[in-house]
Specification:
Elements lengths: L9 H9 L21 E3 L3 H10 L1 E5 L3 E4 L4 E3 L5 E4 L5 E4 L7 E3 L3 E10 L2 E3 L38 E2 L3 E3 L4 E10 L2 E3 L43 E2 L3 E3 L2 E5 L2 E3 L2 E3 L47 E2 L3 E3 L2 E5 L2 E3 L2 E3 L42 E2 L3 E2 L7 E4 L2 E3 L2 E3 L40 E2 L14 E2 L13 E4 L2 E2 L6 E5 L5 E3 L4 E4 L5 E10 L8 E10 L1
Parallel strand pairs: 1-2, 2-5, 3-6, 4-7, 5-8, 6-8, 7-11, 8-12, 9-13, 10-14, 11-15, 12-16, 12-17, 13-18, 14-19, 15-20, 16-21, 17-22, 18-23, 19-24, 20-25, 21-26, 22-27, 23-28, 24-29
Antiparallel strand pairs: 30-32, 31-35, 33-36, 34-35, 36-37
């Protein structure tokens, strides 16, 4: 079978060779990259594709292919690799069960294919443990009652990044006309808080001189865990990513819901006065206060329905439609514990007090959402979006009920009651707050990329045998810049960062050639000039 012609553009060639250099994340150093020249042709076979990309080089499809992935396609080799649809209709379908593609290291180009139905889900946070019940006191107060334990806090849900493609720190990827459809990253739900332990009962009085014990307070509930973040429904990038063209459609980043706050434990009952005689005017023990309910966990925040990046990102000419970032729902506050009942007494003129109910926990805050298409952390400045189109992308915060009077899911907990209404009921908690929602399309302003220009117009004169240093500077385009400087006087050299240095050995004037290249790589912007350098 003849090896098919590789469908490659200059964009791919430049992208792989220039993606990472000493000058910065995407500096075009001009150094050659060792890529096998003979392409490897692959059929629509998952094992064969995985083996080919592991070896590196150019990997091309020989026919149309719709492949349902049973595991994540992993790029982890040190040799640069290109996976190209090569003019065929190629669809990598993760089936809604696994992340489609992962790039853990190296330089990777993926071109002319579609990735769909990738799914990555964060695990739920562990539930908090219930507090241990208190131990009742002994007769006459010895031993003293042992207070109960508080409920443990629920753990935060695990985050989920990149349902279609995840790029690790240090890896460099070019996507050339790659489509992403219906991929999803779903954060895990927060764990529920544990319930507070029941309060310990007070000890009884059985003889004259014995103390009557009061019930201890119930344990407080544990706080619900926060929902895990879901970010980058299609792509999560912690490395260096260039996206050229391609359509993103129906991708979703969805964060986990907050866990429920734990209920407060019931207060312990007061001890009884059961003295057989001579114990008049001795009151029974008071009931203990109910434990407080804990606040619900906050819904997780979501960033980037299609793309989330903490690394270097350049998106040029891509379209985004119906991508969505969705924040998690809040957890409900726990209910306050019921107050303990008073003890009884054989004395007719003493009264024991009913324990008050515990306060309800606050409802959790709903999760926020930013960047229905493209989302970034706050203050992130290494990203550029040029010539995009956005259609029906959306951001939705977690659901916070508008009416919490009936203590529905996501609202605050109710206050604890008291036996027979004789004591004071606990106060209900406060409702949570709505999460911050912003930028249905992109958190990055659309950028028009300028061309790079050398701003150094003149080189300082040098002297024979004397140390010399001059720095060539540029502006425009995307920094960092890479410089190629040639035809220098003898004894002088230049770095790729634009520094001319050394000790000239001969008088005269030379015309120095200078080329500066920026980090756009789609292709890079360059500027060439010639400056005279005189050695006296």
């Amino acid at each position: 079978m003849p090896v098919p012609r590789i469908r490659r553009s200059a964009v791919i060639t430049i992208g792989v060779a220039a993606l990472v250099g000493a000058g910065g994340p995407l500096a075009a150093s001009g150094a050659s990259t060792s890529i096998p020249t003979k392409p490897v042709a692959v059929s629509c076979n998952e094992a064969a594709i995985q083996q080919a990309v592991h070896k590196g080089g150019d990997v091309v499809f020989t026919s149309n292919c719709t492949l349902t992935l049973t595991s994540t396609l992993v790029f982890s080799g040190t040799t640069p690799v290109t996976l190209d649809g090569n003019g065929h209709n190629v669809l990598l379908d993760a089936g809604g069960t696994v992340r489609a593609v992962s790039v853990t290291k190296g330089k990777v180009t993926i071109a002319h294919l579609t990735i769909e139905n990738g799914l990555v889900s964060g695990g739920s946070g562990a539930n908090g443990s219930d507090g241990a019940a208190g131990t009742a006191g002994g007769s006459g107060g010895s031993p003293a009652p042992v207070p109960p334990g508080d409920g443990g806090a629920g753990a935060t849900g695990h985050s989920a990044l990149g349902g279609g493609l995840n790029i690790s720190s240090g890896a460099a990827v070019v996507l050339n006309r790659v489509g992403f459809t219906d991929n999803e990253a779903v954060g895990g739900n927060g764990g529920n808080g544990g319930a507070g332990g029941a309060g310990a009962a007070g000890g009884d009085s059985t003889s004259l001189g014995n103390l009557v014990g009061e019930g201890t307070a119930g344990g407080d509930g544990g706080r619900g865990g926060d929902g895990g973040t879901g970010s980058g429904g299609a792509i999560a990038n912690a490395g260096h990513l260039i996206v050229i063209g391609g359509a993103f459609s129906g991708n979703t980043a969805r964060s986990g819901n907050g866990g429920q706050g734990g209920d407060g434990g019931v207060g312990g009952d007061g001890g009884d006065n059961i003295c057989a005689g001579g114990c008049d005017h001795v009151a029974a023990g008071d009931g203990g206060v109910g434990g407080d309910g804990a606040s619900g966990g906050a819904g997780g925040d979501s960033y980037g329905g299609a793309i989330y990046s903490t690394g270097y990102l350049l998106v040029d000419g891509s379209s985004f439609s119906s991508d969505a970032a969705v924040g998690g729902d809040p957890g409900s506050g726990g209910n306050g514990g019921e107050g303990g009942s008073p003890g009884t007494s054989s004395s007719s003129d003493t009264t024991a007090v009913v324990g008050n109910g515990g306060d309800g926990g606050d409802g959790g805050n709903s999760g926020g959402a930013q960047g229905g298409a493209v989302g970034l952390p706050y203050g992130h400045g290494k990203s550029y979006v040029t010539s995009p189109s956005f259609t029906n992308d959306s951001v939705t915060g977690g659901n916070l009920p508008s009416d919490c009077t009936t203590f529905v899911t996501g609202c605050f907990g109710s206050g604890g009651t008291t036996p027979g209404g004789a004591g004071t009921d606990g106060d209900p908690g406060d409702p949570g707050q709505l999460g911050h929602v912003a930028k249905p399309d992109s958190v990055i302003s659309t950028t028009t990329l300028s061309t790079v220009t050398l701003t150094t117009k003149k080189l300082a004169k040098a002297k024979v045998g004397k140390k010399y240093k001059a720095v060539v500077k540029a502006a425009g385009g995307i920094a960092p810049y890479s410089y190629k400087i040639s035809s220098l006087p003898k004894g002088l050299a230049a770095t790729s960062t634009g520094v001319i240095h050394g000790k000239p050995t001969k008088k005269g004037t030379k015309t120095v050639s200078i080329t500066v290249t920026d980090a756009q790589a789609i292709p890079p912007s360059t500027h060439k000039t010639k400056l005279k350098l005189t050695v006296k």
